[in-house]
Amino acid sequence: MKQSIKRISAVLAMAMALSAFSAFSVFAEGESTAPASVPSTSVPSTSVASAGVTTLADDESNSTTDPAPSAYVAGYTVSKVDGLDNFWDWDERFDVNLTIYDPQNVVTMVRLVNTAIFSGDNYGTTDLTPSPADGSGNRTVTLKEVTYHGGGNTMEIQLSSNDGGVSTTSITIAQCMDVNPNPPEATPTPAPAPTEKPEYDYPKILVKDFSFGGNSVEAGKEFTLQLTLFTTSGNANLQDVMVGLNFGELKGVSLASGSMNTYVGEMAPNTTKTISYKMITDATIEPGAISINVNLTSKNGEAATAPISIPVTQPERFDITNMEAPETIMMGEEGYLSVTFVNKGKSAINNLSAEIQGDNLANPGQSQFLGNIAAGTENSVDFSVMAAAEGTINGKVILSYEDAKGEVKTLEKEFSCTVEPMMDMGIDPMDPGMMDPTMTETTPGMPIWGWVLIVVGVAAVVVVVVVVVKKKQKAKKLAQLEDEDEDI
User: Which of 230, 236, 440, 474 has the CB geometry, 3.0–4.6 Å to 208, for a possible disulfide?
Assistant: First the structure.
């Protein structure tokens, strides 16, 4: 379509040029009419340019009444060298055949003036044909391989005469198609830069601190868990902050009231907020540490999880259940004191030791290390008691131990004992007056060592009876304690 338009435009231009050329004669500059001998300059099947004519005289001021005939370009034809058709496109080469009106043969050289529109061999041509004998005065010359560069269609020609004069004339080449075959690409209009959204630096949220009312939580009791939230530095606020507790597979702990999820709302950078939860542990929970995950979320910040750990202890139920102490002893006699204790709790009692203290003790400062007492077990400790003087022994047994938290505690049990003087038989075994004269004689009967054996045997029987009775009493009390535990 574009090529067809080009060709139509060229044909119209040629037709207009022919019409103009046929309507007006070409005259030398400064003359009103052409010489009578000049024939028509129209060329069949070619376009004729309207030439601007310049006289060849050096001194234009020397005008005469009858000036010499002038030389000028009367017409032209073009023939392609490497063009595709008869239209002269950009960067194509054509031969330009010029018709020079020069009846007196004064023109010695024709030269193409190189311009931005046309270029070629501009050293000049001397192959001008002589003026024909018919008197027409038309000479011809060919400008070889002229290249068209576009930007117009005006060609400049220089005519040199035999008297040294030079004239420049211009002709319009109608066959030129001033259309750039490789038009420069239009510079695309840059798209407007997108409006940059401000970059927000949202803070992070974390659990800065937490508390639960002490160093540990006692099983079976309520406690308040307080969480202190903290936001790091940034340039924007966190929106719709939420805090949630996650117990996972943990058993034995729950909320006493409220919800596990708490809405905090908006938090600015570098701020703190405190939230609370009412919680409770089961009475049967094993002592140790419970782990809870705190989930932190917001609308425009990063989600985070903060684990916390809470120690749980069972209530202590360590006690002295019985003490057996002599009510009366005699001076010089050794009595025995027994203390029974039991651990009813669910945590072990560690590093248990027992000590006896008191006034009027002949052997004070007795101490025994008993070690660890497991949960649900009973044991006892025995001490010997001797008086330092007659009167009363006031003393106590002290049990020292460490509970499940590592804290040192003590249990005390007091006792008292009356100390009586040694029994006086009223007989001095060394008094000779007490000797019966008749005892000097040997009388038959049981020897003294026999009586000693009898006394020892009776004492052994008494000790066995006392031990058996004590064991039965201990077994009975232990059964009662177990019944009490079941009732609890």
Answer: 230
Last residue of a domain, one of 313, 333, 361: 313
Distance between CA atoms of residues 153 and 169, nearest Å: 14
Tell if the pTM clears 0.70, that is, is over it.
no
Identify whether the C-beta of residue 75 lies closer than 8 Å to the C-beta of residue 55. Answer: no
Structure tokens of 125? 């041509």
pLDDT tens per residue across span 355-371: 999 998 888 889 999 99
d(CA 390, CA 383): 20
Please check whether residue 383 is in contact with residue 428, taking contact to mean a CB–CB distance below 8 angstroms. no
pLDDT in tens, 427-481: 555 555 545 555 444 445 566 656 656 765 666 666 555 555 566 666 665 555 5
- 394's CB contacts (< 8 A; 6+ apart) are 358, 359, 360, 414, 416
Asked if residue 118 and residue 24 are part of one domain, the reply reads yes
Phi, psi of 20 (to 5 degrees): -65, -40
Q: Would strands 328-330 and 335-343 be described as parallel, antiparallel, or unpaired?
A: unpaired
Q: Which helix (H) or strand (E) holds 408?
A: strand 408-420
